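User: Study the shape:
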Amino acid sequence: MEDEKVKKEAMEIMGIFQELPRLVVFDLDYTLWPFYCESRSKHEMPSLFPHAQGILYALKDKGIDVAIASRSPTADIAMTFLEKLDVRSMLVAQEIFSSWTHKTEHFQRINRRTGVPYNSMLFFDDEDRNIEAVSKMGVTSILVEDGVNLEALREGLMKFSQIPGSSNAS
């Protein structure tokens, strides 16, 4: 099964690094799945990008918390899709709401909810402006072009491990 293969590979990638983030945060639209929620119906069966599920399960198995930060006018559809994809139960926070700001408000809420410092977080998103804004908060942020995949995970962990002061010890 493809998810198992991806999960195994993601576990191997994580095994290379001494320091791992305490929390990995994902955007939804065009990061975890290949569409905008507002263009879909709750009654559809959504799908994730090919590597997304395996990566999520690998993070869970490794004991790394996962959260969602998504700017969406249709949070109800996003929540339904997370439920249908059997992902919602593994999330420690899901900040899904429409916002005029970049994702900074989402991250402030995630930080308050989880207590995880920004420099112990890793974030994946498909929009430059969100990457820039959240990076300024001290979050290691990775721009994805065709959804989250093993290469993006490797890049994120490399970048995370090179940042002074990012540590699981905090």
Notes: The first strand starts at residue 23 and ends at 26.
